[in-house]
Amino acid sequence: MGKSVRVCFGILAVLLAPLLSGCLGVDKITDLGLNRGIPGGLTLACLDDSVYTSMVVEVDYHPGYKPETSSTNMLQERLDSVCDKPQGIEILLTETTFSNDEIWTANDVRETGWDEKSSNPRDDSTLYWQVIFPAGTYEDSSVLGVAVDASTVAMFKDSIDDAENIFRRPSAEKIENSVLVHEFGHLLGLVNLVYTSPVEHEDSEHPGHSNNEDSVMYWAIESASISNFFSNELPTEFDIDDKQDLIGLADGSISCTDQLWRP
């Protein structure tokens, strides 16, 4: 992303800060005992290969809401780059008719996700994470995606399509690319969800998000206000601080909390 684009992105993001809502649906999670956990609760299971040697990302989508191939391919590449899974990471797409096609709460996402899961997130040597693509919108319609527990994410394509501006810069496809990686970044525990980074790169006004506009974990990625950024190139990569956090979590030099599994 060029310097002028980054400056524009940053200025507009500051101006739009009051309009943005969180993409972490964790306000009512109290079920660590039910093995659902919080976003980041299976971080170590993803970063370690001593038990979970492979990973499946289950993608359940409502008819007509299939994710872009570029989005799932990019997600697989990003997870491959940080998760230690010698037997590979597979994307499993399944068309699923959801009964709700209007307004979704975090609990709706959580319960529906678990009803549709094809396997327990920790099944033998395979780690399962899931994303649902339903019809309808989140209760805060500006939210494009949400992570609701240790293994479940939702993406709202209706809101993503609405976030595309008249110039299609960024396009709905580009927005979906970034938001999908962003939400799985939360399942990885980014930023500071289940640890405290030795580097100050969390945005103090947007907990759980990066203050670096070149990181896919940048706080503005989550919101429909992204349509105000007149560039077709959005961040899709974890930045160096994100990656160093994950390395520290993997080697034990950074302490990790709220884990459903530990090596």
Itemize the secondary structure elements and their pairings:
Layout: H1 3-16, H2 43-47, E1 54-61, H3 69-82, E2 89-95, E3 103-104, H4 106-116, E4 122-123, E5 126-133, E6 137-138, E7 145-147, E8 152-155, H5 157-163, H6 172-187, H7 240-251
Parallel strand pairs: 1-2, 1-5, 3-6, 5-8
Antiparallel strand pairs: 4-5, 7-8
Written account of the structure:
The protein is an alpha/beta fold and 263 residues long. The chain has a single domain (3-251), classed as Collagenase (Catalytic Domain) (3-Layer(aba) Sandwich). Helix content is 30%, strand content 14%. The protein has seven helices and eight strands. The strands form two sheets. Strands 1, 2, 4, 5, 7 and 8 form a six-stranded mixed beta sheet that branches. Helix 3 packs parallel to helix 6 (172-187) and helix 5 (157-163) packs across helix 6. The longest helix is centred in the C-terminal third of the chain and has 16 residues, at 172-187. The relative contact order is 0.21.
